[in-house]
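Shipment paperwork, digital attachment
Item: protein structure file
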Amino acid sequence: MAMKAIPFIAEVNSIGFLNIDEKYGITKLINQKRFRVSDTSMTYRQITYLDKDGLLGVDARANGKGWRLFSIKETVFLSLVVELKKYGFTQEQIKPLRHTLIIAGKDEVPNKFVFDELIGLCMSGMEINVVAYSDGQILFFDPIFYSLNREGILNISDNTSFVLIRLNDLVNKAMEMLKKKPIETTTSPTAAYLENAKNTKSVLSEKEQKVVEALRNQEYLSIEVRKKNGDLDVMKVEQLEQYLDNQSQVISLIQQKQYSDIRLVKRDGKVVHLASKDTIKL
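Attachment content:
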């Protein structure tokens, strides 16, 4: 089933984005084609597969020659595609997303400007959660609507299972290409929960405290918590890719890991990226 991309953004946040965009020109910044494949976190093989799947769109190279260039918005979109493919979504499901998020026509809703807004809100420090259901729906929530959805107030889908991806983490990958520091997420349901926890007398258990500390860690791309007999057991955390200057760093990093799934990316015969999913006993 083809995916439908639907944004749930409060009007006050949309107005806030328009004001920020007018002041800083975010839309122009994220749509400027300036990055080569080697500048992104993706491999040439991934780009080749995405191109065959028809997910890259029109090749902007003059006469098909030279380096193919991507904008920040395109790299964020392609990173989202890669994440969805990890969870088994097919190219036929994902392909319509390009038309609704990148190249939508005037008769399509949402139109192409919604992705500019979503990325812009991430750059302003607001958390944007991507929720993908197996029935083909993919929804973008700001903190207000995400909280409403989790409380069952919106009644969007009959499916109880879904994949949750933080768009902010994908935007921060793009920030690396601009040589910028990661953007701290200051407005989110998690931040609201933590702030509320500070003002209450409730005490978290040691295991719960470890999970909260993991949520605060900006270097973690994803967090998976598992229970055993109803109690928190282990937590798997996936860290953002580390950029390596030499091969000795690779050996050193691997030796430091005890229980990890490690992914290495090579370029020109050298290991340049290392990403790991660590298992932490709670």
